[in-house]
Amino acid sequence: MAAGILDGLNPAQRDAAATIEGPVLILAGPGSGKTRVLTQRIAYMLSEAQPRIDAYNILSVTFTNKAAREMKERTEKLLVKYLGQENSAAKRLTLGTFHSFCVRVLRQDANYIGLDRNFAIYDDDDQTALVKSSLNSLGLSDKQYSPRACLSMISSAKNTLQEPRQFREVAQTYFEEIAARVYERYQELLRTNRALDFDDLIGQTIRLLRENKEVLERYQERYRYIMVDEYQDTNHAQYQLIHALADKYQNLCVVGDENQSIYGWRAADIRNILNFESDYPQAKVIALEQNYRSTQTILDAATAIIAANTQRKDKALWTENESGRPIQVFEAYNEMEEANYVVGEIDRLQVRGEFKPKDVAVLYRTNAQSRALEEMFIRRGIPYQLIGGTRFYERKEVKDALAFLRLIQNPYDSISFTRIITNTPAGKGIGPRTLIDLSQWANQMSLPIYVALQLLQSQEADKQTRRNAGEPEESNEEDLLPPLNVAPKIRNALLDFVNLLEAFIRARGEMTLLELFDYVMEKSGYELSLRDGSEEGEERWHNVQELRTVCQEYNHMPGNDALPAFMEDVALVADVDKFNPDADAATLITLHAAKGLEFPVVFIVGLEEGILPHSRSLENENQLEEERRLLYVGITRAKNRLYLVYAFRRSLYGGQNIPTKPSRFLLDLPSQLVKGYQQAPTGSPHGGRGTGSRDTLWGTDVNRTNWGNTTKPAPAKPAALSKPATPTRPAATGNISLKFKAGEKVLHPKFGKGMVVSSRISGNDEEATVAFEGQGIKKLMVSLANLQKI
DNA sequence: TGTCCCAATCGGCTA
DNA sequence: GATTGGGACA
């Protein structure tokens, strides 16, 4: 091979990039140059491979838009470099997320399975709302049966490709039977609304391919070369989809790392990657084991953490990088001191000229942890960017504004309809009572609400004509239809609404997306109602304006194409998509969202039992392994410096400070990698603390780890910041015996009589789950709750 | 119908 | 500590 695209790759990488035909499994450890291999592989296929491959025949699937965009850009660059400016091959590639790929297929071929191409895409909120109406229309209370719990069952059924009927057959518990009924109704409602939820995007695409051989063959012929990134995160449905497409040519290249599988809760199935070799016995397996990212020390720490997991393939990461600084472990007093330590360190690194804020990421398990950090960043004037939290597209005003556009595209979308009626002035005069009347009326006639409204409109027009012609107002025709019994005022409000909607739909064909947006915001009165003069109102309007800016990007498209393209993109954006590596600011991000990113300096905070590992994962060994992988992902984001931080006390739900216990994962860190590590602390390691200056407080040598020895009571710890001093950490917490056990009857001063469902140790306390007569299930901390056995 | 206030619940990660 | 949903009231 002549000097070319694969130069500069190591032998394993080169092998991975140059193996084009047949099934390939690339096991890519963190920092092993995975993206580089993937992009060079595509470039190689297009420019050097024999036979040369047409970009049109390549499908590359990732999980985030960001990853897709990055691959596209990098591939383009390579192609320009090797094939010259003129080359347009990259534009012919199909490169996207699972969801965007499926949306494209369905917009093209939805008619084969009887779906409207203009389908709306329902996000989490929409889904929950629809589950609620499913419950209600079955005469079930959404308080008795949690819509979210139903939804999660429906979702997992969909992710394992179970139709409502099949799900009903395997339903075991009473609640599962309820969920099965809800699932069935939910699907009916989706259909009436001409909408698909996220899971359907995959599921319906599979249905399309399974039920239509010629469609399947068309896609198989087109996509002869398929690549899947982050294969460890695929769920069963995605697995089936990929395997159906690859079935004919078997040129399937999957890339992944089972140690970075952190989406089990989203039904990702780690077995997909673990079993690839048995799925394709002739598969070529290539391990990328050289790490180019991290120091030896950081890599050793990551290896030590992950070694305890059982669900993994053997591979050994190594690096030629220097050993680097030891890992800094720090115990803070509480979440505020934790934040202060982190921000103080970032400041110090900056002052010393070692790193800039943009080099730093602070990673945490839960979004709620970001608040204390944010406050401290603001207080100390260090720039930061927060990824996640309340997402832009989940803001109420943004969703409201979007609901207008969604309804214009698909007027059958009852969720958007209801949203506009209840939240915006366009629905003034129409309340919940009327909505029920209206939908019942529509139901009697078996018409969608939109059509029922149109009927109302034409009845009104008829009346008008007859009035003008001097005829009696009532006609025989109308008597055949059930009447809508509402006050004339309300009838007019409904007519105003449908007239407005029709005007919007007409406008769509006559203006650009941007003009349409402005038109809708003004005509609906939504702009005026938001900008009520309050600061908050302006802030909201500002967010709507930000959405307007997004519309602008679609202005080059013909009016009728722009809207669906816009809706599709909007429905599928993720938080990380916003991450800006060039901003001169530290990054605050969850461990999940940080996957795929890297930073010179990484802080992982909240390394406590109940947070990482998360309390909801403590009972299940598989979930614990996933928590461990999550930490592994976090550690391996770091290039040069790694800080692991935990707090001695933490307040949850804005409640009191609860003492915490350092994460069990810390115990797996080899002591020689950690700064200030003490296997068995002797004497007081905290000399002078609390009385000294800030410098000694936040210096690197005030590392007071006392984990590693849990049998010995930890020494008292003076208060930091303004918090009052607290007593010593309660003596060894290893084995508090449980006071309550399942089945026991108890009495609570407020909730009355109940029965213990379960009880477990949580922090230094016992948490009992109790079902109270008529009060439902409550979780109580035994030390606080004054529970008595009866 | 709309609005305000209180309580219950939440805060686990997300295409 | 913030959001949301229901009930009371205008």
Automatic annotation (TrEMBL):
<dbReference type="GO" id="GO:0043138">
    <property type="term" value="F:3'-5' DNA helicase activity"/>
</dbReference>
<keyword id="KW-0413">Isomerase</keyword>
<dbReference type="GO" id="GO:0005524">
    <property type="term" value="F:ATP binding"/>
</dbReference>
<keyword id="KW-0238">DNA-binding</keyword>
<dbReference type="GO" id="GO:0016787">
    <property type="term" value="F:hydrolase activity"/>
</dbReference>
<dbReference type="GO" id="GO:0009314">
    <property type="term" value="P:response to radiation"/>
</dbReference>
<dbReference type="GO" id="GO:0000725">
    <property type="term" value="P:recombinational repair"/>
</dbReference>
<keyword id="KW-0347">Helicase</keyword>
<keyword id="KW-0378">Hydrolase</keyword>
<dbReference type="Pfam" id="PF00580">
    <property type="entry name" value="UvrD-helicase"/>
</dbReference>
<dbReference type="GO" id="GO:0005829">
    <property type="term" value="C:cytosol"/>
</dbReference>
<dbReference type="GO" id="GO:0003677">
    <property type="term" value="F:DNA binding"/>
</dbReference>
<feature type="domain" description="UvrD-like helicase ATP-binding">
    <location>
        <begin position="7"/>
        <end position="295"/>
    </location>
</feature>
<dbReference type="InterPro" id="IPR014016">
    <property type="entry name" value="UvrD-like_ATP-bd"/>
</dbReference>
<feature type="binding site">
    <location>
        <begin position="28"/>
        <end position="35"/>
    </location>
    <ligand>
        <name>ATP</name>
    </ligand>
</feature>
<dbReference type="Pfam" id="PF13361">
    <property type="entry name" value="UvrD_C"/>
</dbReference>
<dbReference type="Pfam" id="PF21196">
    <property type="entry name" value="PcrA_UvrD_tudor"/>
</dbReference>
<dbReference type="InterPro" id="IPR013986">
    <property type="entry name" value="DExx_box_DNA_helicase_dom_sf"/>
</dbReference>
<dbReference type="InterPro" id="IPR027417">
    <property type="entry name" value="P-loop_NTPase"/>
</dbReference>
<keyword id="KW-0547">Nucleotide-binding</keyword>
<feature type="domain" description="UvrD-like helicase C-terminal">
    <location>
        <begin position="296"/>
        <end position="596"/>
    </location>
</feature>
<comment type="similarity">
    <text>Belongs to the helicase family. UvrD subfamily.</text>
</comment>
<protein>
    <recommendedName>
        <fullName>DNA 3'-5' helicase</fullName>
        <ecNumber>5.6.2.4</ecNumber>
    </recommendedName>
</protein>
<feature type="compositionally biased region" description="Low complexity">
    <location>
        <begin position="710"/>
        <end position="728"/>
    </location>
</feature>
<dbReference type="InterPro" id="IPR014017">
    <property type="entry name" value="DNA_helicase_UvrD-like_C"/>
</dbReference>
<dbReference type="GO" id="GO:0033202">
    <property type="term" value="C:DNA helicase complex"/>
</dbReference>
<feature type="region of interest" description="Disordered">
    <location>
        <begin position="677"/>
        <end position="733"/>
    </location>
</feature>
<dbReference type="InterPro" id="IPR000212">
    <property type="entry name" value="DNA_helicase_UvrD/REP"/>
</dbReference>
<keyword id="KW-0067">ATP-binding</keyword>
